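Study this chain:
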Amino acid sequence: MTISVDRKRNHVTTNTNTKPIVEYKNVHKSFGDVEVLKGLNLDIMPGEKVALIGPSGSGKTTIIRMLMTLEQPTSGEIIVDGQNLWHMEKNGKLVPANEKHLRAVRGDIGMVFQHFNLFPHMTILQNCMTAPIQVQKEDKESARKRSIEMLEKVGLGDKLEQYPNQLSGGQKQRVAMARALVMRPKIMLFDEVTSALDPELVGEVLEVIRDIAKEGEMAMVLVTHEMEFALDIADRVIFLDNGVIAEQGTPSEVLEESTNERLQQFLHRFRN
C-alpha cells in the first residue's frame, strides 16, 4: 500500500480500494480553554501499524483515548469499521450515541495502558478470562482455553495462577497485552506501554509487541517515545505538534529524512 501525504490538509490518502478501519473527520478536542486537537483528519487502514510521536500535550494520547471512548470529541466524527462511534442514527437523524451503541462499536478495539490496570485480587489467568465471559458472553472453558493460549503467546504460560503483585512490571504489561488480545480486537491501541517500566524491562515488552505486529492482522496505533522501535515496527509515523499533524510518512521519511525544523528539535533529545 502506498501512502500519499497532503500536509496542507493534514490528511492521508491511499491508493487502495480497501476502506479505512478508522477515520477521524475534522476532530477537535478541548479541555476547558485548551484546544488539544485542532481539526484532525486521519485514516487508519486494516492491519496498518501507526506510531504517534510528539511532545507532551500534542494530542497523541487523546487520539487513542477518544477511540476507546475514554474521551469524547468536542466536535467532528470518528468512524470505526464503517460505523459512527460517537453518533448513531435515530429517526433518520444523527444523535449522540448511547452507551449500548458505544459498547458495540468499541467491541473491536483493545487498549494497553501505561499502568497495566490489572485486577489485583485475580490471578493472571482470571484477569484474562473475565472480559470474554462478562462482555462477549463466552463460555468459561472456551475463555480459559484462549486466555491460556494468549498468555503463552506473551511468554507467561508458566505464571497462570500467580497474582499481579508476584510479577515484574514487564510481566504485568505482558499480561495486559494478553488480556486485550483475548478479545480478538481488529484495532489495538498502545499508550506509552513502556513508560512505567524500569529500563531493563522495556526490551521484553517491545519484543512481544513486535511479535504481535508480525502477524499483521490487527491495525495497531502506538503512542511511543521509543524512536528505534517506531522505525522498526511502524508502517507510518505521525508527528503531532500543538494539536495538528506536523509531519507524517514512512518511518524513514519521518525519522531519518525529514527536514521539518520542529520535528528535528523534538528528535534531537533522542540522539544524545
Notes: The first helix runs from residue 60 to 67.
